[in-house]
Amino acid sequence: MVKICCIGAGYVGGPTMAVIALKCPAIEVAVVDISVSRINAWNSEQLPIYEPGLEDVVKQCRGKNLFFSTDVEKHVSEADIVFVSVNTPTKTQGLGAGKAADLTYWESAARMIADVSKSDKIVVEKSTVPVKTAEAIEKILTHNSKKINFQILSNPEFLAEGTAIQDLFNPDRVLIGGRETPEGAKAIQALKDVYAHWVPVERIICTNLWSAELSKLAANAFLAQRISSVNAMSALCEATGADVTQVSHAVGKDSRIGPKFLNASVGFGGSCFQKDILNLVYICECNGLPEVANYWKQVIKVNDYQKTRFVNRVVSSMFNTVSGKKIAILGFAFKKDTGDTRETPAIDVCKGLLGDKAQLSIYDPQVSEDQIKRDLSMKKFDWDHPVHLQSADPTSITQVSVVGDAYEATKGAHGICILTEWDEFRKLDYQRIFYNMQKPAFVFDGRNVVDVEKLREIGFIVYSIGKPLDSWLKDMPAVA
Description:
single chain, alpha/beta, Rossmann fold, 2 domains, 6-stranded parallel β-sheet, 18 helices, oxidoreductase, EC 1.1.1.22, UDP-glucose 6-dehydrogenase activity
């Protein structure tokens, strides 16, 4: 029986291994992590991450050919294929601080693999890593190999949170990069055989190592660029009276462009986009390509501008101050159908409002109070370190309360900020909400989920990203 082990039981490792176990019943799959609480959660009725369809897949396989364990060394030692899906946070100090990836966890995983291995292994990069990481990992493994043969493969994930299980069941492509040697080709084939249990072979792309590593960064950079492009247009739409949804619809009808990732919003979030672009910027700078680096930097600058612009719009609309005012925050996750808050725009928006002394009442159907308060008290980039290395006792923020539903959040509020496009926010009884709010009552829709005209008929003053401005707002321009 082929044995697979995955180091790292997070958003990538857990779902990916669960689907491999489901589709390959003859393969034994172990997911290992040093976090006891995380492994306990994977073995419980309450999984540590929310992802539609994940629970069903895990329950079908857990205890049969899918195992979650803290006995890292045992499972690594026994495995034929070792996936490494550990954190690769952005460095906060030293060379490349604020841009380069910190490979501390990757390096320690590689050294541990070398230490405990007693047989030949295929080591698969599953984390998003900088180009040429495989070379560094290869050096660590070969210098500690004890005559064991290690082959390094790059197999980046292209999952979208909220649809990760469907993406794994029916991927656009599976990318496998390896050394262009007979041993490398054999390793690529071994991993290809795993995916071929359910993925059509024409969708399994095989490349050299560097192409696979760079393809992941490039894909995320291109997607983030589309969001920043439409968000830049949203600012122009507001200034001219155009409607960004109409503009993006017209643009998306061009078959060369297509409609995906053209929804204007308060900004992009998630664990990948900003981190991967910063990584790309650093690699470009290290390779003497400052013009290319500056091009990609602008994608992040526009994203930051969009969040700042939104906060400024809120404050300026409400008589230039939100001090002491209750603002309801609807949605904290970076997108709907996930509980993930990594780099969510809600963090920067909330911090901006807190800086103006607002009182925030936050509701999100999938994010816990502990997580929200942890995120609001954390320093930038700290979120990407393993949970056990983060502060166990987040600083108490007295201006923030986390509540159980949207009606409680909005009761007595001066304004509402919609920051995640949860379907339930489209269906709320806004007449009831209006009745229970302070007047004038404001709605700042950062995801374009509400019916603007209907809300204005109720009596709300509505700001919706990239839409023609309410006459009230025209008199109070946002300064950014």
